[in-house]
Specification:
The structure holds two protein chains of two kinds. By secondary structure, chain A is mainly β. Chain A has a domain at about 580-685: Immunoglobulins (Immunoglobulin-like, Sandwich). Chain A is about 0% helix and about 60% strand. Chain A is built from three helices and 42 strands. In chain A, the strands form four sheets. Chain A has a 26-stranded antiparallel β-barrel. The longest helix of chain A is centred in the N-terminal third of the chain and has 4 residues, at about 25. Chain B is an all-beta fold. Chain B has two domains: about 15-155, Immunoglobulin-like; about 165-260, Immunoglobulin-like, CATH 2.60.40. Chain B has strands spanning about 5-10, 15, 25-30, 35-40, 45-50, 60-70, 75-80, 90, 95-100, 105-110, 120-130, 135-140, 140-155, 165-175, 175-185, 195-200, 205-210, 220-230, 245-250, 255-260. In chain B, the strands form three sheets. In chain B, strands 4, 6, 7, 9, 11, 12 and 13 form a seven-stranded mixed beta sheet that branches. Chain B has a seven-stranded antiparallel beta sheet with strand order 14-15-18-17-16-19-20, with no helix packed on it. A five-stranded antiparallel beta sheet of chain B has the order 2-3-5-10-8, with no helix packed on it. Classes of the chains: A mainly beta, B mainly beta. Strand 1 of chain A pairs antiparallel with strand 7 of chain B, so a sheet runs across the interface.
Chain lengths: ~675, ~260
């Protein structure tokens, strides 16, 4: 009987055991004289037929561990795209090269670069062809400096930088606009943070080859943050814009502009400042913010808001109040303004229950604008191990006489079934202008290893009241969606997301979205992707009630879209290992610590010409890391975390009669990207 | 005297990596376990994905084994056939696999359930081992080591089902804490795992959720199912007994109400 007893702290189906075989000395002992003969080993049956091994090298490029971590990917794309809809755009090509790369350095942080360039297309015009045909960005992150400072810097098509307090706003989200420019961010001790950046605002454009179209003018931001006490963080930031286009319209064929000139030529200049103070202790958080700014030389607009949350046991309460005058911008982008009100939210979570309730009150500061009360509640209860039920309800009460009042109720039933996990959902929404009833069945299917499949079927039935110029209409739309993929063979894989909707009643135009790629691995780092792409927006959208700021009105839109085929040749390479300096964490500042252990013949404490090095002596850093001196007595710790260190020497291999006083203990301070040379002299034993 | 020391390491994320000088054993295996169902007279084919996470080529030996779960859920693997083994019905793809650095094999195995197979459950393990021992250093001594991963397979045949009898509360010590537990006996023909939603109060009046341990209870086994307490404030509280626990226990497609005081 060959039994390999193994004891686990808990049962796990997959165990990994190390068997330490007997060392040679143990195996040399004589076996017991009466050892029973082992039974014959069990012979496994093999699957019949000529079953070739199904081996793929999909991850092969990630196994080169030499050097520091690095990755690069280059895609060369060509495509043919055709417009859809009543006035389709002409057939165009989106051809280009898209690349990105990341690499880690030992002392200069992590770097990444990405870029895209759109190439040619003959005489045909494509979105952006009259503007910039490329995008690029170079990022450096986490460059360490002494004193606990780190810096991030970037150049290219970037987001306007924000200090931490403004990035983490829970309700008032700053839209950090994109620009062609440069940014810098410095983080130091006591929560110090400085950010600055500026450039020409713009927008990304394109389907698979993202290029950057600029909007003219300029934008800039400058901010700082500080934590004077562990619970407190204070911060402030300025953002401004000069003479930037407020609206963007992708370049169109001659005469094809959709926006009237008075819109497309609207420009914005703004100056906005914000100051924030946050307090956090345990599971309680509060933040107070003040904002003030001008747009296009108008009088100052002021705003203030506060958010707070506290968690006790399974309950989390969040609440706040806001007052924001009209006409505020952040850089070249208009932001939510002309609103005052408050909110309260209660969340509860236990093993069986997830529930929350919220109420929002929004009023216009100017007297004209959104004025509503919004109530939201949802709950999910786990009936048993496999089954859960829940409901979501929303109520929007308009204060302007009820013209924009609506409510919705949705119930769902989740079950882990023998095919996977399914959900059935029934929803109803109504407003003064429309009603919508929907039923949805979703299923994530159990699939063999390496495959995935999820499906969804829905029926939406809606009624729209007559509006100006449009008659009442009843519409029923059937929607199907499939997401799935997996390895078909060792060289072929399929990945796709397809959604399709069509009206079985009414005049709604069909909508389709498809992004399906067949990937063929040609060789170790080479792949070809065939992608079918279609994005056709239908003319009908279901009624939803989700926000106090969004009117519960179906928004008619023109049916339009694009379909095409992309062919991509991809080369990618990845490798290396993450760099961790001795005594530090990945990304910590580090320096080099070198030196020599020498025989101080004249005992003057200096390494003089003619004095010999002590070879093959062990030098220990901080009692944890060791190296040996070479034939000349030199040692080298090529990367040591910045800070204070202690060197000691094991003198076992010192030639007699030499010795080291106090084990050669030497204290040194290593700075980031610095090199310290230490000489440790041995003296004659007396 | 083959195995001087055997040390199991439960794989978190199923990545096994040994720093070795001769040949690394760094394999990722998915899925970690199979719980299959088949009718008598049918054949199942399944796939295990094994990825060599080492940059260097690796040679793996695949073979089947039977396993036994100890009283403390320690597992031992056996070459010889044990009762309720599926292995006479099992065929594997091949015994030796050479994988390049970073390569993945979709390794196939089949279970051909004979027409006369009775309803119930059989089980086995597929062992994936480094074909050659690596050498690691323990102090001043270099030792050869063998990396090994076992993928457990359960096959329910026909209408086999578990049948649990819960016969009594007890108090056991888990991670140094006294916690309630239930003695259960699986008199059915298929293994099962306990789950359920339980709540209770200890002697101080504090309310806790209790989670039954979901370790397998094989046919014929008598096991202690530990009820681990937790609360939103404290994931591992210290209970003051007596503790009253109520709720519903679930296993497979069966349920039972529990209303028990542990003293």
């Amino acid at each position: 009987m060959k039994a390999h007893a193994a004891r686990a702290p808990g049962w796990a189906a997959c165990l990994f055991t190390l068997e330490l075989f007997a060392p040679p000395c143990a195996r040399a002992q004589a076996p017991p004289a009466a050892a029973p003969a082992p039974p014959p080993a069990y012979e496994d049956r093999l699957i019949g037929g000529n079953l070739a091994p199904d081996i793929s090298l999909g991850d092969a490029y990630s196994t080169d561990t030499s050097g520091l971590a690095h990755a690069i990917r280059v895609d060369a794309l060509t495509s043919i795209l055709q417009g859809q809809g009543a006035s389709p755009t002409p057939t165009v090509h989106e051809n280009g090269i898209v690349s990105d790369a990341q690499w880690e350095t030992a002392t200069y942080g992590d770097w990444s670069a990405n870029g895209a360039v759109r190439i040619g297309g003959g005489d045909e015009r494509f979105l952006g062809s009259s503007n910039d045909n490329l995008s690029f960005a170079l990022h450096q992150r986490g460059m360490p400096f002494d004193g606990g400072w780190q810096a991030d810097n970037a150049l290219g098509d970037l987001n306007l930088p924000l200090v931490g307090l403004e990035r983490s706003q829970s309700r008032f989200i700053f839209s950090s606009g994109t620009m062609l420019g440069a940014t810098t961010e410095w983080r130091g001790p006591d929560g110090l943070q400085f950010v600055a950046g500026g450039g020409e605002p713009g927008v990304f454009n394109g389907i698979k080859v993202p290029v950057f179209d600029t909007l003219g003018g300029s934008t800039a931001a400058l901010g700082a943050e500080w934590s004077p006490a562990p619970q407190w963080t204070l911060g402030g930031q300025y953002a401004g814009a000069r003479d930037a286009n407020l609206y963007y319209e992708p370049p169109q064929p001659p005469g094809g502009s959709v926006l009237p000139p008075e819109i497309s030529n609207t420009r914005i200049s703004s100056n906005t400042s914000i100051v924030s103070a946050a307090w956090q202790e345990d599971r309680t958080h509060a933040q107070l913010n003040f904002i003030d700014g001008t747009v296009n030389g108008n009088s100052n607009a002021f705003g203030a808001w506060t958010d707070a949350s506290l968690t006790r046991g399974p309950y989390t309460q969040s609440f706040g109040a806001f007052y924001i005058e009209p006409n505020l911008a952040w850089g070249n982008q208009l932001i939510m303004s002309n609103a005052e009100g408050g909110y309260y939210r209660l969340d509860y979570q236990s093993r069986r229950w997830v529930a929350n309730f919220g109420v929002d009150e929004v009023l216009p500061v100017s007297g004209q604008g959104v004025s509503s009360t919004f109530l939201n509640g949802n709950a999910r209860y786990q009936l048993d191990r496999d089954t859960g039920i829940g409901a979501v309800s929303n109520l929007l009460l308009s204060h302007d006489g009820g013209s924009q009042t609506g409510w919705s109720l949705e119930g769902f039933f989740d079950q882990a079934n023998s095919w996977g996990t399914g959900r059935a959902q029934l929803g109803y929404a109504t407003s003064t202008q429309a009603q919508d009833l929907s039923a949805t069945v979703q299923q994530s299917w159990k699939m063999p290893t390496g495959m995935r499949l999820a499906t969804s079927v829905a029926v939406d039935s809606g009624h729209t009241a007559p509006t100006a110029g449009l008659p009442a209409e009843d519409t029923t739309v059937v929607r199907l969606a499939v997401y799935g993929g997996g390895d078909l063979t060792s060289r072929l894989s399929l990945d796709g997301n397809v959604q399709w909707a069509t009206a079985v009643q009414g005049r709604a135009a069909p909508s389709t979205f498809a992004d399906v790629s067949l990937v063929c691995r040609l060789a170790r780092a080479w792949e070809v992707l065939f992608t079918y792409y279609e994005n056709r927006i239908g003319s009908w959208t279901p009624l939803t009630i989700t926000s106090p700021l969004t009117p519960p009105v179906p928004t008619p839109q023109a049916s339009q879209g694009q379909q095409g085929i992309f062919l991509t040749l991809r080369w990618q390479q990845r490798g290396g290992a993450h760099f961790v300096p001795l005594g530090g964490a990945a990304g910590a500042g580090s320096g080099r610590l070198t030196g020599v252990v020498y025989l101080d013949a004249n005992e003057n404490g200096r390494y003089d010409a003619g004095e010999a090095g002590a070879p093959n002596v062990t030098v220990i850093l901080d009692g944890r890391f060791s190296t040996r001196t070479d034939a000349n007595g030199r040692f080298d710790f090529s990367s040591v975390v910045a800070g204070h260190h202690v060197l000691t020497v094991q003198q076992d291999n010192l030639p007699l009669p030499w010795t080291l006083l106090n084990q050669g203990r030497t204290e040194v301070d290593v700075s980031t990207r610095d090199r310290i040379d230490v000489n440790i002299g041995a003296v004659r034993l007396k | 005297m083959r195995a001087l020391i055997s040390t199991p390491i439960v794989l978190l994320g199923l990545v096994a990596s040994i720093d070795a000088r001769a040949e690394d054993f760094a394999a990722v295996v998915s899925p970690p376990r199979f719980e299959l169902a088949a009718k008598a007279g049918t054949k199942l084919r399944q796939v295990i994905e094994v990825t060599n996470r080492s940059p260097t080529p690796a040679h793996y030996r695949f073979h089947t084994a039977d396993f036994v779960l100890g009283a403390d859920y320690g597992v031992s693997f056996h070459d010889e056939l044990l009762p309720q083994s599926c292995r006479p019905w099992v065929a594997i793809e091949r015994s030796l696999v050479a994988l390049p650095g970073g390569g993945t094999i979709r390794y196939r195995f089949e279970v051909q359930v004979p027409p006369e197979a009775p309803a119930g459950e059989c089980r086995f393990a597929i062992m994936i081992e480094a074909d050659e021992p690596s050498v690691t250093k323990a102090g001043a001594v270099q030792l050869p080591i063998v990396g090994r991963i076992g993928v457990i397979v359960y096959v329910t045949v026909g209408d086999g089902a578990p049948q649990l009898e819960v016969f009594g509360p007890e108090i056991v010590t888990q991670n140094g804490q006294r916690v309630p537990a239930l003695r259960v006996h699986n008199s059915g023909s298929v293994h099962t795992r306990m789950s359920g939603f339980l709540t209770g109060k200890d002697a101080t009046g504090k309310t806790y959720d209790f989670t039954p341990s979901d370790l397998p209870i094989l046919p014929g086994d008598i096991r202690s199912v530990v009820l681990t307490p937790s609360s939103p404030d404290n994931p591992s509280p210290t209970l003051t007994f007596p503790v009253a626990v109520k709720g519903t226990l679930e296993w497979s497609d069966q349920k039972a109400d529990l209303d028990e005081t542990f003293r």
